[in-house]
């Protein structure tokens, strides 16, 4: 079974590029374009990992991450902040919520691949 990654990004072009890249790495993708949709998809789809933009319409990515991390059924899902905000803006808050990485856009495909492998390999080991 392929690992499934939820990509939360409101910009359609950025989301499409990230989806294609991640699918090329051999992972399945689920897409959401808002914080509320991210929560809904996380609860219904139970992805193996979430890549969350922080600047989303309506509910911010940080607020959506907080809701996801507070739910015992989804709290263990690794979540990566994927944002144009510089680290000094909200990296500390992202980590305090429980996000495992903070990637500032633009991000190289190599760094994305390494980051995904790091957390998805850890998830496989944790499940044994």
Report the principal-axis shape.
globular
In terms of per-residue confidence, which ranges show pLDDT below 50 for 5 or more consecutive residues?
124-128
How many strands, what sense, and barrel or not for the largest sheet? 5 strands, parallel
Q: What proportion strand?
A: 15-25%
Percent helix range: 40-55%
Number of helices: 5
Please characterize this protein's 3D structure.
With 128 residues, the protein is α/β, with parallel strands linked by helices. 49% of the residues lie in helices and 18% in strands. It has 5 helices and 5 strands. The protein has a 5-stranded parallel β-sheet, with helices on both faces. The radius of gyration is 13 Å and the shape is globular. The two termini are 15 Å apart. The C terminus is likely disordered.
